[in-house]
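note to self: dont lose this again. the chain is below, predicted strucutre after it. 412 aa total, dont forget to put it in the shared folder this time
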Amino acid sequence: MSIEVKVPVLPESVSDATIATWHKKPGDAVKRDENLVDLETDKVVLEVPAPADGVLKEIKQESGATVTSQQLLAVIEEGAAAAAPAAEKAPAKAEAKSEAPKSDAPKPAPASAAPAKGVEQLSPAGQRVATENKIDPAQVSGSGRDGRVTKEDLVNFMRNESAPKSAPAAAAKPAAASGSRAEERVAMTRMRTKIAERLMLSKNSIAMLTSFNEINLAKVAAMRKELGEQFEKANSIKLGFMSFFVKAAVEALKRHPIVNASVDGGDIIYHGYQDISVAVSTDKGLVTPVIRDAQNLGFADIEKSIAAFAKKAREGGLTLDDLSGGTFTITNGGTFGSLFSTPIVNPPQSAILGMHTIKERAIVENGQVVAAPMMYVAISYDHRIIDGKDAVLFLVDIKNQLENPQRMLLGM
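---
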């Protein structure tokens, strides 16, 4: 019986997807739940599993094609998996017989040879692509942090290798000389394209303004030093700075609901909950997984959510549900050493909080000059619905909570 493999139902925010990599070819045996093909969306890479055991009979859409929800991708002949290996043995024997006289010819490497050097440095998704397609990562130019090879690089490498190349163009390409000014042109990934579109949407459709303040984190640092070890033993997770900022943002959003609102045409939507998007950097670009109902979470739950998202982001395991929604965003450029920046609002949200690196600076307290761990913070906001007064008071609220962290524990 033939079974159709279709594109999964995509969320409303994702209109289509691009076929990145087929992991099987027509005639290959497949097992139920085995990944057949990767679909690249604007946000994540989706894996499409086989619905049953059988043989991949036909591929309807090739790599690089754009597909939509429920579009036919392939056809599987159910229950034919057992016959497929037997059918493959005959040509294998004939080939072995024809090669027998050439006993002195070098023997091909077995298909189960160890993965190429460098595969172990890839993410799990990248390792699968490299191993299944026998790609040596050393031959691929990495676009990730510190030149790391990403799954996207491997997919682009496969496309370039399979694309027809004209002989004259190849011949005209000069050999790289010492001191040459080499250039390389690569297609922008869907995620990179989407990021560009959203940034331009934010720039062109939002009356964006940014306000700044600074926070003395001495008391937060002291609390982490005093209680950090006990917190980790009790919750199996470290107490970081981000959970303090998420809790402070949640409390401030309750008192300044306009900052938690969004614009929909001529309407303002006030959200009665705080779904906090936390910016996470990946090899492919910045993503913002959502901590849902953050108003109901404690410090440990927030830290665990952030750690889980960071792990999934590194391994390419974030789902569309992880990235959908969000009423307010927090981004931490301080992770990379940023001292000062103006974050860009993530539509349809109306505000974003920017954290920065912590620096010991001289400040005046009670008439005395002392050194304190200071952080500049910024809030960018949609001036169409948020007045400067609201934005400044919101930022001052966060400052007061973090400089007196006991207030957060009391909901003040």
